[in-house]
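hey all, quick one before standup. I had two proteins in the batch that finished overnight and I want to keep them in one place so we stop losing track of which output belongs to which input. First protein below, input sequence then structure tokens straight from the run.
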Amino acid sequence: MDIYTYSIELSSRFSDPNVHEIISKIPESNLEDIGVRIEPVCPNIKNILVTGGAGFIGSFLVRKLVLLYPEFNIVVIDKLDYCASLNNLLMINGMPNYSFIKGDIMSSDLVTSILKEKEIDTIYHLAAQTHVDNSFGDSLEFTQNNVLGTHVLLEAAKAHNIKRFIHVSTDEVYGEVAKTSPDCHEESILAPSNPYSATKAAAECLVISYYKSFGLPIIITRSNNIYGPCQYPEKICSKFICSLIRDGKCYIHGDGSNSRKYLYVGDLVDALDLILNSGQIGEIYNIGSNFEISNLDLAKILLEQFNIDEKKHIRYLEFVKDRPFNDLRYAIDDTKLRELGWKPKIGWDYGIKKTIDWYKENCDKWWGDISGALVPHPYNSYKTLPPSGDYKKKININFCGIVNYTNIIVNIIFVLVCFVFGKYFYRE
């Protein structure tokens, strides 16, 4: 089916006469990522809340749900942190089944009012701090957002009889996987090795506990590294691409031998859609890719994509100090999800070309100034403290130099979660 016919088909599902005009303005490359409906649709779903829906993955998911399922009402909550942008959702502005709320999921009153007023029955929870580098410098913020934010959401979901709570996590909770070790399946031991993955694992423990203790109907997903258009340029693919567009360098951590598996964002949201409609309550689903590449080889491939002669590669490659800890690789077994009928559709060659094309057109205008994201180690900025007034505000210290009690409480919550629910880290 050609794109024009596809857009007409999407429009025909809506009774609102303005929808055709909205869809006709969506770029072809974006329509390609919408995909097709899952049939049959889960009959219990009507009003869906997507947390972090203005972010990279969240916005792809929101656009898909809004355009494919006119019977769903999609509500987005996002605090519009540095890596999110309303530009990600601009193409669906005016759609009758979409609404946006700027807000923080750590506000219990706000979350409760949304669930009640919008009669939410389903939650996709994607809101999180996700950049490993930043977690080495400001790890407390990761605990607050990823653990406490999830806890607030779970409490509200429990009180409002949510029918599906889909918690989007990461393969990093499994920790490093040696090439001689088998791929991690959903019941593998969790062994997070950095503050980011530790907070995601702690959040998972809370999610599982609400399923076991209160019967909250949860599903957890864990995916490989995701790449594609609209990703804030702090992750390696988008960071290297934006740097090369500016004739800058690709900064290689360590010797560049660390490898990752990469999955195109459109394939990920296809999986999230399938899991919403066909996934089993209480299950965990790995979402994986077979394409694995080292950081150094990734940089070289991107240089080739930019038609930079191999003899000039050395000019664009700079080896820098490694992270405080850098997992060698991750590897997951996604057999369970593939048995539901999912498999990736976008190959690396096509996906990375499409991604590069998007950044060439948009990287300098989508988020504003991105220069701070393109440095070798963003977390180093936290080591130099700002002037005293900003310093107190930044790390929550009062005039006596005593740490604010809120931070203490958050840390205690995190330790208790890990202690009380620690047995889930060691399930066979």
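OK second protein, same deal, sequence then tokens:
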Amino acid sequence: MTHTPPPDAALNWCREVTRVHSHTFYRGSLLYPAGQREAVWAVYAACRAGDDIVDGLPPEQAAPELARWWAQVQAAFAGEEGESDMQRALAWAVARYPVPLPAFAELHAGFQMDLRGAHYRTLDDLLVYCRRVAGVVGFMIAPIGGYRGGDSTLAAALSLGQAMQLTNILRDVGEDLRRGRLYLPAELLNEYGVDVEGLRAGRVTPEYRALLRHLCGLARDGYAHGQTGIPQLAGRARFGVAVASRLYAAILDELAGGDYDNLNRRAVVPGRRKAWLTVQELGRQGTALDLCPINWASRQVVRLRDALP
């Protein structure tokens, strides 16, 4: 098989989608080698395109657009390049790496949950949603970089993706409320005595802080399990995933440092701390870096530095 890069326009579109919509994921992707890096962007951009449909359009318009998105994803897996940048790039990526179509099918099911405006009664309901819209992304990315350990490594990747999505939800409660969405499970709100109208009014109560501490603890447990699979990832991919994991988990630290006020402010990890966490991973992932030339590691530090806001 001849491996050729996707058209420049498709590649540039995927890179920009990734860079604009997830600074943390983008920084992690920069640590993959050429070829793998572009495939990671292609997968992320395809996922993001579906998410933008669900988030950006009224349900009556989003439903047919989501159906068109799903048709393009299936066509890409069938080797059809199509007309869109998303489909061309994804078709290239899945021809080169064994990205599983069933993972995209679960993602599609998660987007449909959003279209139905589902409110989550239990924590298990929320975790199903987190699995579908983010956990399965680990199934998509792991084959690109390569991995050992079989199902146990994929289970760790799933936990990591779910933890990242739960982190996003905890970071964005205020923003989601202003868009008419609430992902926090009703049973937990009742258990902790949290009033939804109070949340809409921006009131951060002791009860609400206790609930967030509980959910942050669950997210941290997910990161801990997810990190057990990182040593099973191949070469530079190990470093990229490790960095993304550390940077996402740092959002929880910022949330706690802001006294759990996610109703009136957004927890953001400062650029300098992101750089420091990345340097720490340079030391922690020594085995992965031993597989790479020293000048490669130096280039990644420069690349990350230049990407900082």
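Flagging for whoever picks this up: The longest helix spans residues 206-228. The radius of gyration is 19 Å.
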